[in-house]
Amino acid sequence: MPASLVSQAVGKTSPSVVLAEIAQTPASLPNKLWQLEGALEFELVDVTAAGLHRLGGRAKLKSVPVFVIWTPYRNVYASISDLRNNIDELKNETAKTDAKIDETKSELEAKIDQLEATIDQTKSELKTDIQTMQQKITAAIKT
Q1: In Å, how far are 20, 111, 129, 133, 136 from 126, measured between CA atoms?
Q2: Which UniProt keywords apply (predicted)?
Q3: Among 10, 8, 33, which Cα is nearest to 23's?
Q4: pLDDT in tens, 93-138
Q5: Residue 20 — φ and ψ, nearest 5°?
Q6: What are the sequence ranges of the domains in the chain?
Q7: Which residues are CB-neighbours of 18 under 8 A, at least 6 positions away?
Q8: Reduced to 3 states, what is the DSSP secondary structure of residue 55?
Q9: Contact 55, 36 (CB under 8 A)
């Protein structure tokens, strides 16, 4: 509510200031009241009203009306921040999964290389064995 409307509502006609505090939890209400009272102590401006979110009812603080408003917590920025955090977590999990896939791929490539080397060695050994047997058979036939 603009200060001029609040001024009219409480009967003041001079320009003034409306103080407002937002309490996110009931436990923070005493601190918020203390902050409003502290602001009134300095009396640097003509305070028309003080607002405290989530208190309920009407009250006066140092002869200044306190308007209390309650609304459900709907902070778009907090929701966007939560979404960002969720996306960041998903990115981190995806990066971890990608790293595991890369690690597994490297391990499999190493095992495939090892198997290919073993197969090549076995082929070479078999070829040598066959040649040795052929020579023995050929020598046996000639004698």
Answers
A1: 90, 22, 5, 10, 15
A2: Coiled coil
A3: 33
A4: 999 999 999 999 999 999 999 999 999 999 999 999 999 999 999 9
A5: -140, 140
A6: 3-69, 74-143
A7: 1, 3, 6, 47, 48, 49, 50, 51
A8: coil
A9: no
